[in-house]
Amino acid sequence: MLAVEISRHGGPEELMLVERPDPVAAAGQVVVRNRWIGVNYVDLQHRASLCAMRILIAEDSPLCQKLVETALTNQPYEIHFAANGQEALRMFEAERPDILIADWMIPPPSGVELCREVRKRAGGYTYVILITSKSETENLIEGLEAGADDYVTKPFDAGELLARIRVGSRVIAMSREIETRNAALEEAIRTDYLTELPNRKAVEEFASKQLEAARRHGFPLWIVVADLDKFKLVNDTYGHVAGDQAIQSFAELLKANTRASDISGRLGGDEFLLVISHGEKKAILQTIDRLRADFASERFDFAGHNVQITTSFGIAGLNAANDKTVADLLIRADKALYTAKSAGRNQVIAAVDRQFVLHG
Ligand code: GH3
Ligand code: MG
Question: Which pLDDT score, from 0 to 100, does residue 352 have?
Fold first, then answer.
Protein backbone atom coordinates (compact mmCIF):
# COMPACT_ATOMS: atom_id res chain seq x y z
CA MET A 1 0.00 0.00 0.00
CA LEU A 2 1.39 3.36 -1.03
CA ALA A 3 0.48 6.52 0.80
CA VAL A 4 0.29 9.87 -0.90
CA GLU A 5 -0.51 13.00 1.03
CA ILE A 6 -2.29 15.94 -0.45
CA SER A 7 -2.77 19.04 1.59
CA ARG A 8 -5.72 21.31 1.02
CA HIS A 9 -7.45 23.85 3.16
CA GLY A 10 -6.54 23.36 6.73
CA GLY A 11 -5.21 19.85 6.92
CA PRO A 12 -3.84 16.93 5.04
CA GLU A 13 -6.22 14.53 3.40
CA GLU A 14 -5.01 11.05 2.87
CA LEU A 15 -4.76 9.20 -0.39
CA MET A 16 -3.70 5.58 -0.33
CA LEU A 17 -3.07 3.56 -3.42
CA VAL A 18 -4.24 -0.01 -2.87
CA GLU A 19 -1.86 -2.25 -4.74
CA ARG A 20 -3.31 -5.63 -3.84
CA PRO A 21 -6.95 -6.73 -3.97
CA ASP A 22 -8.58 -5.86 -0.71
CA PRO A 23 -11.93 -7.03 0.77
CA VAL A 24 -13.41 -3.66 -0.07
CA ALA A 25 -11.13 -1.80 -2.44
CA ALA A 26 -10.01 -3.27 -5.73
CA ALA A 27 -6.48 -2.96 -7.08
CA GLY A 28 -5.95 0.29 -8.93
CA GLN A 29 -8.35 2.16 -6.73
CA VAL A 30 -7.49 5.04 -4.50
CA VAL A 31 -8.74 5.12 -0.94
CA VAL A 32 -9.76 8.65 -0.11
CA ARG A 33 -10.24 9.73 3.47
CA ASN A 34 -11.18 13.15 4.61
CA ARG A 35 -13.14 14.67 7.38
CA TRP A 36 -16.21 15.45 5.31
CA ILE A 37 -16.70 12.31 3.32
CA GLY A 38 -15.27 9.54 5.48
CA VAL A 39 -13.77 6.79 3.38
CA ASN A 40 -14.43 6.31 -0.30
CA TYR A 41 -12.97 4.12 -2.99
CA VAL A 42 -12.33 5.87 -6.23
CA ASP A 43 -10.97 4.66 -9.54
CA LEU A 44 -7.47 5.94 -10.12
CA GLN A 45 -8.60 7.43 -13.41
CA HIS A 46 -10.99 9.75 -11.65
CA ARG A 47 -8.69 10.61 -8.78
CA ALA A 48 -7.68 14.03 -10.09
CA SER A 49 -11.19 15.02 -11.05
CA LEU A 50 -13.02 13.73 -8.00
CA CYS A 51 -11.06 13.51 -4.79
CA ALA A 52 -10.19 17.13 -4.29
CA MET A 53 -13.36 18.87 -5.50
CA ARG A 54 -14.87 21.25 -2.99
CA ILE A 55 -18.51 22.17 -3.37
CA LEU A 56 -20.27 25.13 -1.80
CA ILE A 57 -24.06 24.88 -1.71
CA ALA A 58 -26.00 28.11 -1.25
CA GLU A 59 -29.44 26.89 -0.24
CA ASP A 60 -31.82 28.07 2.48
CA SER A 61 -34.49 25.38 2.12
CA PRO A 62 -33.79 22.46 4.52
CA LEU A 63 -35.64 20.14 2.16
CA CYS A 64 -33.49 21.09 -0.80
CA GLN A 65 -30.35 20.94 1.35
CA LYS A 66 -31.28 17.40 2.33
CA LEU A 67 -31.83 16.46 -1.30
CA VAL A 68 -28.39 17.73 -2.30
CA GLU A 69 -26.80 16.04 0.68
CA THR A 70 -28.46 12.75 -0.23
CA ALA A 71 -27.29 13.07 -3.83
CA LEU A 72 -23.73 13.56 -2.63
CA THR A 73 -23.66 10.86 0.03
CA ASN A 74 -20.67 8.58 -0.42
CA GLN A 75 -19.33 10.78 -3.15
CA PRO A 76 -15.77 12.05 -2.81
CA TYR A 77 -16.57 15.74 -2.51
CA GLU A 78 -15.97 18.23 0.26
CA ILE A 79 -19.36 19.83 0.91
CA HIS A 80 -20.08 23.15 2.60
CA PHE A 81 -23.52 24.71 3.07
CA ALA A 82 -24.43 28.39 3.22
CA ALA A 83 -27.98 29.37 4.19
CA ASN A 84 -28.05 32.75 2.42
CA GLY A 85 -26.26 34.74 -0.26
CA GLN A 86 -24.16 36.79 2.13
CA GLU A 87 -22.84 33.75 3.95
CA ALA A 88 -22.22 32.05 0.60
CA LEU A 89 -20.17 35.00 -0.62
CA ARG A 90 -18.13 35.06 2.58
CA MET A 91 -17.50 31.31 2.36
CA PHE A 92 -16.68 31.63 -1.33
CA GLU A 93 -13.97 34.21 -0.54
CA ALA A 94 -12.53 32.04 2.22
CA GLU A 95 -12.72 28.63 0.55
CA ARG A 96 -12.66 29.34 -3.19
CA PRO A 97 -14.69 26.19 -3.93
CA ASP A 98 -14.36 24.30 -7.20
CA ILE A 99 -18.12 24.13 -7.67
CA LEU A 100 -20.84 26.48 -6.44
CA ILE A 101 -24.42 25.22 -6.42
CA ALA A 102 -26.71 28.18 -5.77
CA ASP A 103 -30.47 28.32 -5.46
CA TRP A 104 -31.84 31.26 -7.46
CA MET A 105 -34.16 32.20 -4.59
CA ILE A 106 -32.08 32.55 -1.44
CA PRO A 107 -31.92 35.49 0.98
CA PRO A 108 -29.81 38.16 -0.74
CA PRO A 109 -27.74 38.26 -2.70
CA SER A 110 -29.74 35.83 -4.85
CA GLY A 111 -28.20 32.91 -6.74
CA VAL A 112 -27.97 35.01 -9.91
CA GLU A 113 -26.35 37.93 -8.08
CA LEU A 114 -23.92 35.44 -6.51
CA CYS A 115 -22.99 34.30 -10.04
CA ARG A 116 -22.20 37.88 -11.03
CA GLU A 117 -20.08 38.41 -7.90
CA VAL A 118 -18.18 35.14 -8.40
CA ARG A 119 -17.37 36.04 -12.01
CA LYS A 120 -15.94 39.41 -10.92
CA ARG A 121 -13.33 37.64 -8.77
CA ALA A 122 -9.92 36.88 -10.21
CA GLY A 123 -8.31 33.50 -9.58
CA GLY A 124 -9.13 29.91 -10.44
CA TYR A 125 -12.39 29.07 -12.18
CA THR A 126 -15.45 28.02 -10.16
CA TYR A 127 -18.13 26.00 -11.94
CA VAL A 128 -21.58 27.35 -11.07
CA ILE A 129 -24.82 25.35 -11.13
CA LEU A 130 -28.06 27.26 -10.51
CA ILE A 131 -31.03 25.61 -8.85
CA THR A 132 -34.18 27.08 -10.32
CA SER A 133 -37.90 26.61 -9.94
CA LYS A 134 -40.13 26.22 -13.00
CA SER A 135 -40.93 29.94 -13.21
CA GLU A 136 -37.27 30.99 -12.96
CA THR A 137 -36.39 28.60 -15.74
CA GLU A 138 -38.08 31.07 -18.07
CA ASN A 139 -35.46 33.63 -17.00
CA LEU A 140 -32.65 31.21 -17.54
CA ILE A 141 -30.90 33.41 -20.08
CA GLU A 142 -30.35 35.93 -17.29
CA GLY A 143 -28.78 33.23 -15.09
CA LEU A 144 -26.47 31.96 -17.80
CA GLU A 145 -25.47 35.48 -18.77
CA ALA A 146 -24.73 36.22 -15.12
CA GLY A 147 -22.09 33.48 -15.29
CA ALA A 148 -23.84 30.19 -14.44
CA ASP A 149 -22.47 27.15 -16.28
CA ASP A 150 -25.47 24.89 -15.82
CA TYR A 151 -28.78 24.59 -13.98
CA VAL A 152 -31.15 22.05 -12.45
CA THR A 153 -34.86 22.63 -12.09
CA LYS A 154 -36.69 21.82 -8.85
CA PRO A 155 -37.82 19.23 -8.02
CA PHE A 156 -34.66 17.59 -9.33
CA ASP A 157 -33.53 14.04 -9.40
CA ALA A 158 -30.48 13.18 -7.25
CA GLY A 159 -28.96 11.23 -10.14
CA GLU A 160 -29.33 14.20 -12.48
CA LEU A 161 -27.70 16.58 -9.99
CA LEU A 162 -24.82 14.14 -9.50
CA ALA A 163 -24.35 13.80 -13.26
CA ARG A 164 -24.22 17.58 -13.65
CA ILE A 165 -21.72 17.86 -10.79
CA ARG A 166 -19.56 15.27 -12.55
CA VAL A 167 -19.63 17.38 -15.71
CA GLY A 168 -18.53 20.34 -13.57
CA SER A 169 -15.78 18.22 -11.99
CA ARG A 170 -14.41 17.34 -15.40
CA VAL A 171 -14.43 20.99 -16.48
CA ILE A 172 -12.71 22.03 -13.24
CA ALA A 173 -10.12 19.22 -13.47
CA MET A 174 -9.22 20.41 -16.98
CA SER A 175 -9.23 24.01 -15.89
CA ARG A 176 -6.91 23.25 -12.94
CA GLU A 177 -4.57 21.36 -15.21
CA ILE A 178 -4.39 24.32 -17.58
CA GLU A 179 -3.87 26.71 -14.64
CA THR A 180 -1.05 24.50 -13.29
CA ARG A 181 0.61 24.32 -16.69
CA ASN A 182 0.27 28.06 -17.20
CA ALA A 183 1.83 28.70 -13.80
CA ALA A 184 4.71 26.35 -14.66
CA LEU A 185 5.20 28.13 -17.99
CA GLU A 186 5.12 31.53 -16.27
CA GLU A 187 7.77 30.25 -13.87
CA ALA A 188 9.86 28.81 -16.72
CA ILE A 189 9.94 32.03 -18.74
CA ARG A 190 11.25 33.83 -15.68
CA THR A 191 13.85 31.27 -14.63
CA ASP A 192 17.39 30.83 -15.88
CA TYR A 193 17.81 27.26 -17.08
CA LEU A 194 21.39 26.69 -15.90
CA THR A 195 21.24 28.25 -12.44
CA GLU A 196 17.52 28.30 -11.64
CA LEU A 197 17.97 31.92 -10.64
CA PRO A 198 15.47 34.50 -11.87
CA ASN A 199 16.46 35.44 -15.44
CA ARG A 200 16.96 38.88 -16.96
CA LYS A 201 13.23 39.37 -17.59
CA ALA A 202 12.29 38.47 -13.99
CA VAL A 203 15.02 40.47 -12.32
CA GLU A 204 14.39 43.58 -14.45
CA GLU A 205 10.64 43.39 -13.78
CA PHE A 206 11.33 43.13 -10.05
CA ALA A 207 13.82 46.01 -10.24
CA SER A 208 11.24 48.23 -11.99
CA LYS A 209 8.65 47.55 -9.28
CA GLN A 210 11.17 48.20 -6.52
CA LEU A 211 12.28 51.41 -8.20
CA GLU A 212 8.69 52.66 -8.30
CA ALA A 213 8.24 51.75 -4.62
CA ALA A 214 11.57 53.30 -3.61
CA ARG A 215 10.72 56.56 -5.41
CA ARG A 216 7.26 56.62 -3.82
CA HIS A 217 8.27 55.71 -0.28
CA GLY A 218 11.80 57.12 -0.29
CA PHE A 219 13.77 54.03 0.70
CA PRO A 220 17.27 53.30 -0.63
CA LEU A 221 17.65 50.99 -3.65
CA TRP A 222 20.84 49.44 -4.98
CA ILE A 223 21.57 47.75 -8.27
CA VAL A 224 24.65 45.54 -8.37
CA VAL A 225 26.09 44.11 -11.57
CA ALA A 226 28.53 41.20 -11.15
CA ASP A 227 30.68 39.70 -13.89
CA LEU A 228 33.09 36.79 -13.51
CA ASP A 229 36.69 37.71 -14.35
CA LYS A 230 38.44 36.29 -17.40
CA PHE A 231 35.76 33.69 -17.66
CA LYS A 232 36.34 33.01 -21.33
CA LEU A 233 39.77 31.76 -20.30
CA VAL A 234 38.15 29.33 -17.82
CA ASN A 235 36.02 27.90 -20.63
CA ASP A 236 38.92 27.81 -23.07
CA THR A 237 41.27 26.14 -20.60
CA TYR A 238 39.00 23.73 -18.68
CA GLY A 239 36.01 23.37 -20.98
CA HIS A 240 32.42 24.53 -21.03
CA VAL A 241 31.24 22.01 -18.42
CA ALA A 242 33.77 23.38 -15.93
CA GLY A 243 32.59 26.90 -16.83
CA ASP A 244 28.99 25.90 -16.18
CA GLN A 245 30.00 24.52 -12.80
CA ALA A 246 31.57 27.85 -11.84
CA ILE A 247 28.47 29.78 -12.97
CA GLN A 248 26.24 27.45 -10.91
CA SER A 249 28.49 27.80 -7.91
CA PHE A 250 28.37 31.59 -8.08
CA ALA A 251 24.57 31.38 -8.41
CA GLU A 252 24.36 29.20 -5.27
CA LEU A 253 26.39 31.76 -3.35
CA LEU A 254 23.99 34.49 -4.51
CA LYS A 255 20.93 32.44 -3.51
CA ALA A 256 22.37 31.83 -0.05
CA ASN A 257 23.04 35.54 0.41
CA THR A 258 19.86 37.08 -0.96
CA ARG A 259 17.22 38.25 1.51
CA ALA A 260 13.59 37.41 0.80
CA SER A 261 12.89 41.08 0.06
CA ASP A 262 15.68 41.28 -2.53
CA ILE A 263 16.46 39.43 -5.73
CA SER A 264 19.52 38.03 -7.51
CA GLY A 265 19.31 36.96 -11.12
CA ARG A 266 21.42 35.94 -14.07
CA LEU A 267 21.45 38.48 -16.87
CA GLY A 268 23.12 35.99 -19.20
CA GLY A 269 26.62 34.56 -19.76
CA ASP A 270 28.78 35.28 -16.74
CA GLU A 271 26.82 38.39 -15.77
CA PHE A 272 24.48 38.68 -12.76
CA LEU A 273 22.25 41.38 -11.30
CA LEU A 274 21.35 41.97 -7.66
CA VAL A 275 18.55 44.30 -6.56
CA ILE A 276 18.84 45.29 -2.92
CA SER A 277 16.55 47.61 -1.00
CA HIS A 278 16.51 49.25 2.40
CA GLY A 279 20.25 49.01 3.02
CA GLU A 280 22.65 51.78 3.89
CA LYS A 281 25.62 52.33 1.59
CA LYS A 282 28.24 51.07 4.02
CA ALA A 283 26.35 47.83 4.75
CA ILE A 284 25.73 47.16 1.05
CA LEU A 285 29.38 47.65 0.20
CA GLN A 286 30.40 45.30 3.01
CA THR A 287 27.88 42.65 1.93
CA ILE A 288 29.01 42.75 -1.70
CA ASP A 289 32.66 42.70 -0.77
CA ARG A 290 32.02 39.63 1.42
CA LEU A 291 30.43 37.94 -1.60
CA ARG A 292 33.45 38.86 -3.71
CA ALA A 293 35.86 37.44 -1.11
CA ASP A 294 33.78 34.28 -0.52
CA PHE A 295 33.65 33.38 -4.19
CA ALA A 296 37.32 34.25 -4.75
CA SER A 297 38.28 31.83 -1.97
CA GLU A 298 36.29 28.94 -3.47
CA ARG A 299 38.47 26.25 -5.00
CA PHE A 300 37.35 24.35 -8.06
CA ASP A 301 38.81 21.04 -9.05
CA PHE A 302 38.81 21.07 -12.85
CA ALA A 303 40.39 17.83 -14.08
CA GLY A 304 42.88 17.79 -11.22
CA HIS A 305 43.62 21.51 -11.46
CA ASN A 306 43.00 23.65 -8.43
CA VAL A 307 41.30 26.74 -9.83
CA GLN A 308 40.08 29.98 -8.24
CA ILE A 309 37.84 32.45 -10.03
CA THR A 310 37.30 36.07 -9.13
CA THR A 311 34.44 38.47 -9.82
CA SER A 312 34.11 42.21 -10.39
CA PHE A 313 31.15 44.22 -9.13
CA GLY A 314 29.63 47.57 -10.08
CA ILE A 315 27.10 49.20 -7.75
CA ALA A 316 24.68 52.06 -8.35
CA GLY A 317 22.43 53.58 -5.70
CA LEU A 318 19.10 55.16 -6.60
CA ASN A 319 19.19 58.89 -6.98
CA ALA A 320 15.46 59.61 -6.93
CA ALA A 321 15.87 63.02 -8.59
CA ASN A 322 17.71 61.66 -11.64
CA ASP A 323 16.94 57.95 -11.99
CA LYS A 324 13.60 57.48 -13.69
CA THR A 325 14.04 53.91 -14.90
CA VAL A 326 16.08 50.82 -14.07
CA ALA A 327 18.08 51.48 -17.25
CA ASP A 328 19.37 54.75 -15.70
CA LEU A 329 20.68 52.82 -12.71
CA LEU A 330 22.04 49.99 -14.85
CA ILE A 331 24.08 52.42 -16.96
CA ARG A 332 25.86 53.69 -13.84
CA ALA A 333 26.30 50.21 -12.36
CA ASP A 334 27.78 49.03 -15.70
CA LYS A 335 30.17 51.99 -15.78
CA ALA A 336 31.30 51.13 -12.25
CA LEU A 337 31.78 47.50 -13.31
CA TYR A 338 33.82 48.63 -16.30
CA THR A 339 36.00 50.69 -13.97
CA ALA A 340 36.45 47.65 -11.71
CA LYS A 341 37.54 45.58 -14.71
CA SER A 342 40.01 48.13 -15.99
CA ALA A 343 41.36 48.74 -12.48
CA GLY A 344 42.50 45.10 -12.27
CA ARG A 345 39.29 43.06 -11.59
CA ASN A 346 38.36 41.23 -8.32
CA GLN A 347 36.99 44.39 -6.76
CA VAL A 348 33.82 46.27 -5.90
CA ILE A 349 33.23 49.76 -7.25
CA ALA A 350 30.28 51.90 -6.33
CA ALA A 351 28.99 54.74 -8.47
CA VAL A 352 26.69 56.69 -6.20
CA ASP A 353 27.53 60.37 -6.45
CA ARG A 354 31.03 59.83 -7.65
CA GLN A 355 32.95 56.68 -8.50
CA PHE A 356 35.47 55.38 -6.04
CA VAL A 357 37.45 52.22 -5.60
CA LEU A 358 36.56 50.36 -2.48
CA HIS A 359 38.62 47.23 -2.49
CA GLY A 360 41.58 46.54 -4.68
P1 GH3 B 1 36.13 39.90 -18.22
O2 GH3 B 1 36.98 39.72 -17.02
O3 GH3 B 1 36.46 41.17 -18.95
O4 GH3 B 1 34.68 39.78 -17.94
O5 GH3 B 1 36.54 38.73 -19.21
P6 GH3 B 1 35.65 37.53 -19.68
O7 GH3 B 1 36.51 36.54 -20.34
O8 GH3 B 1 34.84 37.02 -18.52
O9 GH3 B 1 34.76 38.23 -20.73
P10 GH3 B 1 33.24 38.16 -20.86
O11 GH3 B 1 32.58 38.44 -19.56
O12 GH3 B 1 32.86 39.03 -22.01
O13 GH3 B 1 33.05 36.64 -21.27
C14 GH3 B 1 31.97 35.93 -20.94
C15 GH3 B 1 32.22 34.51 -21.35
O16 GH3 B 1 31.25 33.68 -20.70
C17 GH3 B 1 32.04 34.27 -22.82
C18 GH3 B 1 31.46 32.87 -22.90
O19 GH3 B 1 32.46 31.99 -23.33
C20 GH3 B 1 31.12 32.52 -21.48
N21 GH3 B 1 29.77 32.04 -21.30
C22 GH3 B 1 28.60 32.68 -21.56
N23 GH3 B 1 27.55 31.92 -21.22
C24 GH3 B 1 28.06 30.76 -20.73
C25 GH3 B 1 27.46 29.57 -20.21
O26 GH3 B 1 26.23 29.41 -20.11
N27 GH3 B 1 28.31 28.59 -19.81
C28 GH3 B 1 29.67 28.72 -19.90
N29 GH3 B 1 30.44 27.71 -19.48
N30 GH3 B 1 30.22 29.82 -20.38
C31 GH3 B 1 29.46 30.83 -20.79
MG1 MG C 1 33.36 38.15 -17.53
Answer: 58
